[in-house]
Amino acid sequence: MKAAVLTTPKPVSQRPLRISTAPDPQPGPGQMLLRVRACGVCRTDLHIVEGELPPKQPGMIPGHQIVGEVVGGATKQFPAGARVGVCWLGGIDGTCPYCKRGEENLCDSPTFTGYSVPGGYAEYAVARSDFIFPLPEALDDLHAAPLLCAGIIGFRSLRVAGVQPEERVGLFGFGASAHLTIAVLRAWKCEVYVSTRGESHRKLAASLGATWVGNEIEKPPVELDRAVTFAPSGDVVIAALASLRKGGVVAINAIHLDRIPQFDYDRLLWGERQLRSVANMTRADARDFLALAAQINLRPKVTVFPLEQANEALLAVKNDAVDGAAVIVP
Ligand SMILES: [Zn+2]
Ligand SMILES: [Zn+2]
């Protein structure tokens, strides 16, 4: 099959992915073979190909927002030809203390699609059959793909931040995940305050119903109940913290941050403000979010790249040059 293979991690401008021929994957017991119809591009893929996340094994195929069609290992629930989604969490051990607590997102021995096992920047992929999800029929392949990480993890961020209906919520950074998260917040009748660099991102936020939109150095005009940060920048986390009311929560939706700058505890964290990270996802997050997405008719804005341009797709994400989500089609 054709695939985008990571040889040595390096800056994406140096084209770390090689478009080449890889052996067709073979499903083992409890696994399915999928023909990839589309695969979303996530900032985590960028951290993998650039090496901020250390390589798990050589020759990795990234991609963890896979819309696929079952072509092997079919089950009663997912017959041949069924359209399914695969996410970042590709498996758990089921036996560690976190799995036993029902916190599978924190599993000690997780499988991560497109990181510890090959992902969806390819014509075919294998996935555990207990970690795939049926997709809303109303959404075509291209528009379903970004829901599978950008959407689900954004949704989990709102849960981690403890968002309640009608609250004031800040979104710091406005890429693929935030542009889906705002739709959920609008459905919950929240006021949404968006702080982001890039004129086109600000325009998109305004068109999607933000109450207020500002650039990365402007402060929202009101104190926020909750905030979610999406940029891989500690400065953005501090800006979010500085905009909270007492008792407010910042959820950091980023698997990697440059660093956290020193900050003033008395002014920024005192008053029971909280800083929380968002790690991975659970299958319940996926099911609940996909059901909600269907109910509110969530439709991402997408830019399509052919598999041959996987490096270009990642470069566009890195440079904030995509409004909404980038999707690769093999
Ligand atoms: Zn992701
Ligand atoms: Zn576990």
**Using DSSP, what is the number of strands?**
17
Largest sheet: 7 strands, mixed
Low-confidence stretches: none
Mean pLDDT: 96
Structure at a glance:
This protein has 330 residues and is an alpha/beta fold. The protein has 10 helices and 17 strands. Strand 14, helix 8 and strand 15 form a beta-alpha-beta unit.
Description:
By secondary structure, this protein is an alpha/beta fold. Helix content is 25%, strand content 26%. It contains 10 helices and 17 strands. The chain has helices spanning 43-50, 97-100, 141-144, 150-161, 176-187, 199-207, 234-241, 265-268, 283-295, 310-318, and strands at residues 2-6, 17-21, 31-40, 66-72, 83-86, 89-91, 111-112, 124-128, 132-134, 168-172, 191-195, 212-214, 224-229, 244-252, 274-277, 302-306, 325-329. The strands form 4 sheets. Strands 3, 4, 5, 8, 9, 16 and 17 form a 7-stranded mixed sheet that branches. Helix 4 packs across helix 5 (176-187) and helix 4 (150-161) crosses helix 9 (283-295). The longest helix has 13 residues, at 283-295. The mean pLDDT is 96. Bound molecules: zinc ion (2 copies). One zinc ion binds next to loops. One zinc ion (ZN) is lined by residues 92-93, 96, 98-99, 107-109.
